[in-house]
Amino acid sequence: MSHAPFVLGPEQEQAVRRLFDQIPFNLFLGITLTEVTQERVKMELPMKPELIGNHFQGILHGGAIATLLDVAGGAMALIGAFERHHQLPTAERMARLAKLGTIDLRVDYLRPGRGTLFTADATLLRSGNKVAVVRSELHNEEGVRVAVGTGTYLCG
């Protein structure tokens, strides 16, 4: 029996957005989810005084950078899990997706986080039955790449 190919529809996009909005830390930091497609997730974080990590230089805290890369990566892993498990009954699929979590995150800080608006883009490198690997990049409003991350996520 063959299954129809997966297409990220409005229902799945809304599920990603709902899950994102249910995480208080995302909202506390001021992260906004600006794009959800089958190919990528995009999020933005405006700079604010509470996010400064080096007050002498006024740069974004490394923890905020890592968080933004991780949150974008987790959302992309969720999309990969949707694709991987779309043929399962809804209850079983949701039980698997409820287990989504970060296993490992490597962050390479390339430049100081100078800017007023930071954007994270995440793309799926691999989505398996239980684990997804995602690549994320963080840029400032001038397009300068500030950091990159590779995350491994439990997704089923």
Short recap of the structure:
By secondary structure, the chain is an alpha+beta fold.
Notes on the structure:
The chain is α+β, with helices and mostly antiparallel strands and 156 residues long. The chain contains 4 helices and 8 strands. The strands form 2 sheets. The protein has a 6-stranded antiparallel beta sheet with strand order 1-2-6-7-8-5. Strands 3-4 form a two-stranded antiparallel ribbon. A hairpin with a 4-residue loop joins strand 7 (131-140) and strand 8 (145-154). Helix 1 (10-21) packs antiparallel against helix 3 (62-85). It starts with 9 loop residues before the first helix and ends with a strand. The model has no long low-confidence stretch (mean pLDDT 90).
Strand and helix map with partners:
Layout: H1 10-21, H2 24-29, E1 32-36, E2 41-46, E3 52-54, E4 59-60, H3 62-85, H4 90-97, E5 101-109, E6 117-127, E7 131-140, E8 145-154
Antiparallel strand pairs: 1-2, 2-6, 3-4, 5-8, 6-7, 7-8
Helix pairs in contact: 1-3
Write a concise keyword list for the protein shown above.
single chain, 156 residues, alpha+beta, Thiol Ester Dehydrase, Chain A, two-stranded antiparallel sheet, 4 helices, 36% strand, fatty acyl-CoA hydrolase activity, PAAI_dom, hydrolase, Thioestr_dom
Number of strands: 8
Percent range for helical residues? 25-40%
The CATH class: Alpha Beta
Strand sequence of the main sheet, in spatial order? 1-2-6-7-8-5
CATH topology: Thiol Ester Dehydrase, Chain A
Q: Describe the biggest sheet?
A: 6 strands, antiparallel
CATH superfamily: Hotdog Thioesterase
